[in-house]
Structures are given as structure tokens and as C-alpha cells.
Amino acid sequence: MALKLNGFCSTVALVALAAGLAAQAPPPAQPTTNQQSPTFKVQIDAVTLDVVVKDDQGRFVPDLRKDEFEVYEDGVKQEITSMTMSHGGRVTNVLEAAAPPPPEGIILPPIRRVTDTSGRIFLFFVDDLHLQFQNTSRVRDVFKRISKNLLHEGDLFGIVSSGPSSIAVDMTYDRKRFDEAMNRMTGSGLKPSEIIQMSTAAGSSQGPAEVRYNAHVAFATMTEALENLEKVKNRRKALIWVSEGYDFSPFLQSRLGTLRDGASSPFLQNDAATTAQSFAQQAAQAGGTQAPAGGDNLQSTEQFSDAELTFELAEITRAANRANTTIYTIDPRGLIAGGDIAEPIDPHEWNEYLRKTQDSVRILAEQTGGLAVVNQNDFDKALKGIDAASSDYYVLGYYSSNPDPLKRRRQIEVKVLRKNLTAFSRKEYVIKPPPKPSVPAKASSPKQKP
Prior knowledge:
Layout (H helix, E strand, L loop, with lengths): L1 H23 L21 E10 L13 E5 L2 E3 L1 E8 L2 E4 L26 E7 L9 H14 L6 E6 L6 E5 L2 H10 L7 H5 L12 H21 L6 E7 L9 H5 L14 H16 L8 H28 L2 E6 L16 H20 L5 E2 L5 H13 L1 E7 L9 E8 L4 E4 L3 E3 L20
Parallel strand pairs: 6-7, 6-9, 9-10, 10-11
Antiparallel strand pairs: 1-12, 1-14, 2-3, 2-13, 4-5, 4-12, 7-8, 13-15
Helix pairs in contact: 2-3, 2-10, 5-8, 8-9
């Protein structure tokens, strides 16, 4: 018992001694932690709009005030924070404070300061993959008229082609570069007869491969160009798109050899497909059956091709709206009465091809607030209209207060409160998706020896 008690006392003495020493020693350093407070980011989208306002006689109205405009995004009214007006190539800041009054005895006319953002930016796209060789002279004539009626001193321009013309003129003010590029423009589009004779062995559900490839090259070229134009701010940007239009599945029945009169049709058909169709009909007659017409398959094929073309055109217009760039399309074929006499195309299929190609360039212009010069021969009048639209305009700016900040596609509506006036501007814009996070490369594990 005494041993146990003495052991307990000695233990208490040791604890008391340790506690005293600890009280005299400095307190231990607290371990530092790298904890950071969470960071919340709020993104406010700054949006600018080019707006052209005309009266009932088609004339530009240059004296509008900020309170005479209303801008709505997805139905929500936005507060206009900036407003400039360009008239005749001179840019003025409408919201700038008024100048101080002049000294007594001096009478001066009221003026507005002119900013240094005057001058327009033009990108000319020569889609020679969709321009017929026989229309080369018409294409060059259109560009001569552009040089005369549209392109002025102080305009920054660039020229690019999609095919063998191999034109790539960086942004410049040098008009000599324009003339040099014009002399190199040559159409290299596929003729209707070449499209009809293309092989259908790869399957006709997607149309001729070369037709689709040429269209994809043109669209990819312009998508990249619009991404570069998106970096330019506070300038009037116009894309002049010269092309004969697009159709992913043209002359479908002629390519498949299924015209109404069969092999005896006077119109062009695919030779191999017509022969195969004749053999199928002969075999069906010998067996006492009827050869399938395949009408439902043809209709579904055409619908799928049209839907894909509509999707790709929508991607182009979204890129243009993000870049605040207006597309003006020009079909150099002019007023078209019928097909080429040297190529007897079925009239119904030719009219369908013509309608679809013209509608495709109309969509590019209308969805970006531009103008489509289609099925007309008065190019001078049309170019003067483009010149006026790209010279006289307002630029309205606002910070988006959209109630759904995660919504990418947003509808825009611009209203003018003054009576008998019409506003022309883009109808929507699409926010770019956030960049995908980079995935770190997996470290290779060392191989174990057996």
C-alpha cells in the first residue's frame, strides 16, 4: 500500500514540474493554413447594337435622342448606357455633355465633337467554290461597281476567297490591293450537269460529298473570319458575301435516275443510276411486280439535307451577331429566267435548286440585319443602299440585365418611339459557351518488374 501511494505521489510531482516548465516556455507556433475565402464572380455582358432608323420614305433619321429608343432583351427593358451616331462617315457621341457656352459677343453654331472611330470595316468574301466559271465576268463587274459605289477613302477592308482564286488580303486601306484581287477572281463552282453525274454509291441520304465539302469550306472560312472581327469594337463592320447560294442535296431525282419519264426523259440524269433503274423496272415487269418508286425516301432525304443546311446557316448568323457584324449577300447571277440552254435540267428541279440557293443567302442577310441582293440586275442601286446603311446608323450600348444569366441565346428588340419610323438591327445574339476545363495528362505509372 505504501508503495502504491509513493508511486502516485511521485507521478503527481512529475506532472506538476512539467506544467511549470510549460508555463515558462513560449506558446507553440500555430500551424499556418492556406485556407482562402471563396470568390464569387459576377459577369455583366456589355452589348452593342448597330441600329438603322428610316422614315416612311426610306431616309435615315439623324436627330433621335436616347429617350426615343427602347431596347428589350428577352422582353426585359434595358438601360441604354452609350449612344453614338454615324452620319456621312462622321461619328458623334450623342450622350456627351454639351460644350461650355462661348464668350459673350461671339456667336458660333452648335457643334458636336467627332470621335476618332470614323471609317468602316468591310470584309469581302468571294465564295468562288459557289460561283460558276461562266459568271466570272459578272463577278468582276460586281466588284468594279463595289469599288465605285461602296468602298470609299478611309474604309478599312480585307478580301478572302474560299477556293482556287487563292485571295487573302489582310485588312488594308490600299485600293490597289482591291484591284489586284479583283483581277484574280475566277468562278470554280460545280455545274448542274457535274452534280447530276456524281456517284451515288456512297449513299444519297446526305447528298453529293463534294457539294457538302465545298459548302463546309466556305462556312469554316467565314466562321474564322467572324471570330477575328469579334475582337474589333466600336466600329461599323460589314461582311459582303458574294455567292450563288447553297443546296446540300440538289437535283435529287436527276441524280438517282428517278425522273417521271425514266430513261426516255429529255432532261439530264445520272447515267449509272438511270441504267440501274431501268434494270430494276425490267426485272420487276418480268416477275409480274411493280418497281418501288421510293418517293418517301426521296422526301425524307431532302428534308434531312435542308435541316442540316438550316443549322449550319444558323451557326454563321450567330457568329456574325456575336461579332456585331452585318452580312450583305450578293448573288451575281442577277435576274434569272431559266437554266443554261447547254444543260437541259428538269424545270421543276431547276426551280427548286434556284429557290433554295437564293433562300440560303437571304437567310444570312436577314438574320443579321443586312440586305440580300438577289434576283435583280440593278447592282448600283443595291450597293448604294448598302453604302447608306453602313454609313448612317446609331450604335446603342447597354449592360445586360437578363433575368436568366445562364441563357445563351437572347432575343433583342429595338423600338423607336417617334411615329412613322422603322428601326433595323440584329434580332438576337448568342453568348459563347465557357471554355472547357483542360484535363491534366495522366502520369504514366512506372512499370513493375516481374
